[in-house]
């Protein structure tokens, strides 16, 4: 599994942006479309802004790219916490992506219904082809969660590919997440992690004992490629860094 360690976050972001464009070109040439699951939280915003910048925007046939979300907070799409809003602001609106290319979680529904509806959207979109993303972008929380697969939550036991609701008891909030079996069907999965605050989580996930209940990102083992793009700060506790 390639772990790419770059001196700075900016360099990691540029290398990942180039990889994104490369995969998009290959997928569009082979299958006529590029289907991506976006990550949320704070780290990917800079990647999205970079992809929409003059440096990269002409490197992808954006009209053939379809966007889903690896996870979403159960808040309105106008809420500052919304992963959809972040992606819309940083990537989708600047690139003029059409609404029919974007599959957001319907957070106006109650959490379980929103998850069921999202599972159905995925099934309809991929009908017959199997639900396989060309690329899943993921981040890593400092508690080793990824998407909304949080430590010690029941969704970690899920064996079916789909979307599920997750209740975070400490924050008393719901999220919707794609399950590990679904994420693992992807042709490529990429973690983008930068900053010293993530170094312990990176070390535990990549080098610690296998304990996905504590380190859920260890559940990610796709049938396709798996890459980690790190800066030196996030990689600082890895033995070879
Ligand atoms: O909550 C979330 O966090 C993880 C990590 O996000 P970051 O803000 O620490 O970079 C992210 O992968 C997930 O999509 C997001 O909803």
From TrEMBL:
InterPro entries: 6-phosphogluconolactonase_DevB, 6PGL, Glc/Gal-6P_isomerase, NagB/RpiA_transferase-like. The keyword Hydrolase applies. Its EC number is 3.1.1.31. One of its GO terms (molecular function) is 6-phosphogluconolactonase activity. It holds the Pfam family Glucosamine_iso. Keywords: Hydrolase. Residues 8-228 form the Glucosamine/galactosamine-6-phosphate isomerase domain. Belongs to the glucosamine/galactosamine-6-phosphate isomerase family. 6-phosphogluconolactonase subfamily. This is 6-phosphogluconolactonase. It comes from Hymenobacter arizonensis (Siccationidurans arizonensis). The gene is pgl.
